[in-house]
Amino acid sequence: MHVLVIDDEAALRQILAAAVRKAGHSVDTAGTAREASSKLVRGDVDIALCDIKMPDGNGVDLVRSFKGSGIDTHFIMVTAFASMETAVEALRAGATDYIVKPVREEELLHRMEQIGSMRGLKAENQALRQLVAGDRGVFHFGSPSMVEMERLVSRVAVTDSTVLITGESGTGKGVTARSIHEMSPRSEFPFIPVNCGAIPENLLESELFGHAKGAFTGADRARKGLFSEADRGTLFLDEIGELPLHMQTKLLHVIEDKAVRPLGGEQARRVDVRIVAATNRNLSEMVKETRFREDLYFRLSMFHIHIPPLRERREDISRLIRFVLNGMVGKGKKQLELDPMAEEILVDYAWPGNVRELENVINRIYILADGERISLADLPPDIARQSISRERGGMDIASSGGLREQLRRVEADIIVRTLKECGGDRRAAAQKLEIGVSSLYRKLEEFETLGTMRSEP
Ligand SMILES: Nc1ncnc2c1ncn2[C@@H]1O[C@H](COP(=O)(O)OP(=O)(O)OP(=O)(O)O)[C@@H](O)[C@H]1O
Ligand SMILES: [Mg+2]
């Protein structure tokens, strides 16, 4: 591990650093809060041993500023007895542990070891998760309905309650399930996603609950089952609406008994698993049609989170677009600006495939865009077309500004419509407008400036 010793007393710094180095870790030191900050932002510090009082700031503020910043450093506060209260405040702010001066080497190393094994588990978990699900587990939005949803998520996360997440395809049910796990006290244990619709019906039971050796032909080894693998962690039952009725019954029993009996096994085994389920189906309708057990439905929906489709929270669209674009830059690609007119069309689009569709579309636009900006002509034809069919007709464009300014707006409007009609094909649009391709390009460039003007308050 890489450890940063933060203390304004040089002597103490040296003693701590020597102890840490002796235990086989790499060490760096900082004598002021400012120096500490500049070393912490590099993101490579596993543990910070942090003094509370420093000449230019205090340790609690340091913890506060780094928690939630995406930097994964564990803080162990080093405190005098007199400032115990401050140490507790630091724990509340997100420090992992504290240790009282004078520091005993043995105790320090023990605390560090504990953090080390926690991090090891976490890294393993992360690797596994990426392997299983192949996605990133991030949240990104700002609309009131999603802020409310995030509040619900963080409230329910800390409990052991079963959670049902509903929403259309691509709205983020998977990422929500994951973040419930990550914000929960179970986060150091496994998060196991299961797609109930993807496992063949005859294998479901042994996949979920395991089987004994010889339980059926071909079972030449015992298998633990996903429930047992998720022990102490979270089992994410995705597409729960696809679960056949007889499996619904078995699932309900396992949830109520908190124990699984492997197929062909004698003994039931206790498991401590938190269930998060998701579906894009209407489960209460399915209950009415007796395709879903009512008792299981009640069990699962003890806490219900519904994620609205993107078209009902258009405030999130721009933010998500920027988020995806910035993600590209993070991967070492160049930064692309988004032309305000193009943005307007993207915000207007219906997004039937929700956030997943948005990600795909923006990635494709990014790859195909040839300039420094994403402009109207870079939008996929189907999106441009859908937006023309919803067009709110006519000249409702702002009528402020002088004649020349207003004419330019009208001209821009005509060109935008034509481009949309031609599916973004500039050559075809130019032909239809009876102007040369190069003058269309020139005008588009002009309008991009106009677009910038429009976006200003
Ligand atoms: N709030 C968000 N911020 C950033 N990315 C998001 C957000 N919501 C969803 N995504 C991204 O959108 C994609 C779809 O999300 P996810 O797989 O969770 O949707 P889903 O509702 O489970 O879809 P399906 O029903 O098709 O399984 C993922 O790549 C995910 O990373
Ligand atoms: Mg999903």
Short description:
Helix 16 crosses helix 17 (403-421) and helix 17 crosses helix 18 (426-433). This protein has helices spanning 10-22, 33-40, 59-66, 84-93, 105-133, 144-157, 173-182, 201-209, 226-229, 245-257, 283-288, 294-300, 315-330, 340-348, 354-368, 381-389, 403-421, 426-433, 437-455, and strands at 2-6, 26-30, 47-51, 53-54, 57-58, 74-79, 97-100, 163-166, 191-195, 234-238, 259-260, 269-270, 274-279, 303-306, 337-338, 373-374. Helix content is 49%, strand content 13%.
Please tell me about this protein's structure.
The chain is α/β, with parallel strands linked by helices and 457 residues long. The chain has 19 helices and 16 strands. It has helices at residues 10-22, 33-40, 59-66, 84-93, 105-133, 144-157, 173-182, 201-209, 226-229, 245-257, 283-288, 294-300, 315-330, 340-348, 354-368, 381-389, 403-421, 426-433, 437-455; strands at residues 2-6, 26-30, 47-51, 53-54, 57-58, 74-79, 97-100, 163-166, 191-195, 234-238, 259-260, 269-270, 274-279, 303-306, 337-338, 373-374. Helix 6 (144-157) packs across helix 7 (173-182) and helix 18 crosses helix 19 (437-455). It is flat and about 85 Å long. The two termini are 50 Å apart. Magnesium ion binds at residues 173-174, 238.
